[in-house]
Amino acid sequence: MYLTPQHILLAGASGMTGEHLLDRLLNEPTVERVLAPSRKPLAEHPHLENPVGELLDLLPGLNGPVHTAFCCLGSTIKQAGSQDAFRAVDHDLVVAFAARARELGARHLLVVSAIGADSGSSVFYNRIKGQTEEALKSQGWPQLTIARPSLLLGPRNEFRLGERLAAPFLRWLPGKHRAIDVTALARALWRLALEEGEGLRIVESDELRRLGR
C-alpha cells in the first residue's frame, strides 16, 4: 500500500466513472496531485491540475511525475457517431493516453474496459474493447489492471433508453453479468490501485462489486 504522496493521471474525469473516481482521489490523504485533462473545466481543488482541451492535443504538454494512471475513457457508437469515431476514442485515444502516461513515469495503469471484451468477437463493441486491451498489454506496463464492469448504474449526462430499460433486470443477474453501481466501481479502482504487484490483472464485474462494497 502506498504511504508516500501520490501523483495521479486521470483521463475521462468528466464522465460518469471518472467523475466519481476524481472525487475519491481528491479526498485521499496520500494523493498529492491529480492531473486530469478534460474538454471542459472541472471544479477547482488545491490538489487538482486541469488542462482544458482535446485530450489528444493536450497529451504532449502533460508533465510528470506520475505514479499511477487511470483511464476512464469510453463512448458508444451512437454517442461517437460512427464505428470509426468510436474506435478513435475507445481504442486510439486510450492507447495514446496510456503511452504518454508511461512516458511520464507511471508504473501502474488501471483502465476501464467492458464485460465481454474480446479481440476476436463478432460484436464490434466487444472486439474494439478487446483490441484495446491487447494494445495496452503490448506496452510493457510493470503493472496493468483491466477492469471489466457490466452495465454501470448511476446518473448520466445523456439518456440511454436501452440501459434504462435493462437496468432493473441486470441488477438481479448472477455473477459478473449483474449491473454495478458507479460508486462501487470507483471504490474498487482505488483499492486496486493500492495493491502492489507486477504484471497483468483482469478484474471482472463480480470482483469489482466485491471490492467496491
UniProtKB/TrEMBL annotation:
It is found in: Membrane. The keyword Membrane applies. It holds the Pfam family Epimerase. Residues 8-101 form the NAD-dependent epimerase/dehydratase domain. GO terms for cellular component: membrane. Keywords: Membrane. Gene3D superfamilies: NAD(P)-binding Rossmann-like Domain (3.40.50.720). This is Uncharacterized conserved protein YbjT, contains NAD(P)-binding and DUF2867 domains.
